[in-house]
Amino acid sequence: MSLANLLDRAGSGGRLTFSEGVRLYRDAPLHELGEAAHARRTALYPGDGVTYVIDTTINYTNVCNVHCTFCAFFRPEKHPGGYTMTHDEVVARVKHAVDLGATQIMIQGGVNPELRLEWFERLFRRVKSEFPLVDLHSLSVSEIVGLAWLEELSPRDVLIRLREAGMRSLPGAGAEILVERVRKRISARKVKPDEWLGVMRDAQQLGMPTTATMMFGSIETLEERIEHLEAIRSLQDETGGFTAFIPWYYVPHKTPLRGKEASGVDYLRVLAVSRLYLDNVPHLQASWLTPGLKLGQLALFYGCDDMGGTIIEERVVRDAGSTNEATRAQVEGLIHGAGYRPVIRDTYWNVRADMPLATAG
Ligand code: SF4
């Protein structure tokens, strides 16, 4: 099949095989690739709305026993630079975010073996009792597996306990690249690809919506990026539990792994191929935190239908050298500037028409 025909088929929602995904990624000219991804996105969401969520990420501890080589945020146990927030400190940050309109709270951190499951249960119950309207879209597969190990429970039982304490959805962090060769090099002590997918399956079967991420641009090959997409697509065929896919690129500046930062062109190619390959994942999120706001805006023409969150407070990516941040007005300004209309959503993609925009348009 010619490249043009393949792009036409993918842009109309036809399923790509692994080798077709690789071929598009490798050979399709950037603009044609973007055009096909944008056609697919427009067919799925024909209106002029682009969603975003008002959220915060509270990195409650930087102590972590996983030691990923791409991470500049963590400190090993007993390190003088390690910190763990008290419940009062976390709750004060939640309050600050809620005062700014946040509906989604991501409480995420390192895998800190000092913190037992009961610590999280008390924290989540307190947050939900003081701020009943917020959605706790919190922790990650690594933290769930760390707690399961500590408590001698299955990850599923940990999820059940956390769900009872108020955590209703699980972010897709920690997927990096779901290929064993890559994980051995960049996060040897982290959960294996099958474990990551297994915990996601558990959460989805328990009725907790999840997202999926991909951290690209470290040491993986182009084929391994498509392998990652294939793993997400296969699980989604089985469960339908992923609401969104969020590819973001590795920021090497202050990490032990080092290396070179991905280019803007690479970012846009990943977005477009993701939109075309993941024909069963509804939303594609522009992850402007690493590529920056202007490239995040351009992402809206490469398959993205969502600008992600305002990420009021975040340290993991910032500690690696990213300096991007945005107010609600800036995020809305980017959406307006691209010719779209900002729409506030919640964690479950419900439109929050009751919440006023920060800008008049
Ligand atoms: S990426 Fe997460 S799991 Fe890995 S070292 Fe950093 S905090 Fe720990």
Helix proportion range: 40-55%
**Class of secondary structure makeup:** alpha/beta
Ranges with pLDDT <50 over ≥5 residues? none
Hey, roughly how much beta strand do the residues contain? 5-15%
CATH architecture: Alpha-Beta Barrel
Order of helices and strands: HHHEEHEHEHHEHHEHEHEHEHHE
Task: Tell me the number of helical segments per DSSP (H or I, 4 or more residues long).
Answer: 14
* C-alpha termini separation: 44 Å
Describe the global form. Answer: globular
CATH superfamily: Aldolase class I
Radius of gyration: 19 Å
Count of domain modules: 1
Average pLDDT, to the nearest integer? 93
**How many beta-strand segments?**
10
Cofactors, ions, other ligands: iron/sulfur cluster
State the major sheet.
4 strands, parallel
Question: What is the CATH topology classification name?
Answer: TIM Barrel
Task: List the strand order in the largest sheet.
Answer: 2-3-4-5
Kindly provide the name of the CATH class. Answer: Alpha Beta
Plain-language structure description:
The protein is of the alpha/beta class. It has one domain (28-345): Alpha-Beta Barrel (TIM Barrel), CATH 3.20.20.70. It has 14 helices and ten strands. The protein has helices at residues 3-11, 18-27, 30-44, 87-99, 117-130, 141-151, 155-164, 180-186, 193-205, 222-239, 264-277, 293-298, 316-319, 328-337; strands at residues 49-53, 55-59, 104-108, 135-137, 167-169, 210-216, 242-249, 283-284, 306-309, 341-345. Strands 2-3-4-5 form a four-stranded parallel sheet. Strands 9-1-10 form a three-stranded parallel sheet, with helices on one face. It has a three-stranded parallel sheet with strand order 6-7-8. Helix 5 links the parallel strand 3 (104-108) and strand 4 (135-137). Helix 1 (3-11) packs parallel to helix 3 (30-44) and helix 3 crosses helix 11. The radius of gyration is 19 Å and the shape is globular. The protein starts with a helix and ends in a 16-residue tail after the last strand. It binds iron/sulfur cluster (SF4). Iron/sulfur cluster binds next to loops.
